[in-house]
């Protein structure tokens, strides 16, 4: 294991472990002026006296959120490099956490994939290996187009929610009420809904196809493909949490029934720890409407007249698709 390694390329960017810090001469030879520590350990302050120093407290575990620190770390690295100095990013071993931060920087700076960034880093330090959770965070960061404001990015918020559900599931609990993401209270990236799901008894709109969770053959079918095809043969529609479910989902129960908010008919059920569909697939978390209680109604494109469906008289007074509060 080398003491510290220079990231290949023309940047004065270095990666190392804890013991690197004690080799003053080596740090001096590399012209290190800035040090970024990625660990949750008490650090000897004297070691950093002659450097610009930042600490990100993080453990090397899959569910540690490093993603939220990427923008600030990138900024710190860039400032150090722009000032003409050398920048050292270190963790305990210089293997997972510091490699993740350097990959995030290279991904953002060079607009490359995290895998390409890691390959580049491994040319200098072959054993660099972000843990699986960090690798997924890097992929998400890249997919989000490396925003400066991660917190306000819907994909990040969605990831936080899924993480919360997974963490609470691991300890056998329902997610905390304020952590549940009611998907219809957030802007959707795609605005067109193919169809609506309505209560068979009272016709109340309960969901649009945008909020379906496509569990079947998810990997094999084309992404963004028609949701209806993928639920053929299943006796449930699986959904994201929607605001009409709020009174039930916020009770903190592990599972329960879902009633139509208008006519109070039992239309479905939920189980945070997951539910098996009639097709055999498990959906986690499982929030489902029973097909027998629901009518699938094709959504009208705004402004178009759909002669195929006879709308009940009340339809005319309702706001158009996408504007309804589900
Ligand atoms: Zn109803
Ligand atoms: Zn199914």
Automatic annotation (TrEMBL):
Lineage: superkingdom: Eukaryota
Q: What is this protein called?
A: Tyrosine protein phosphatase yvh1
Q: Which organism is it from?
A: Vermiconidia calcicola
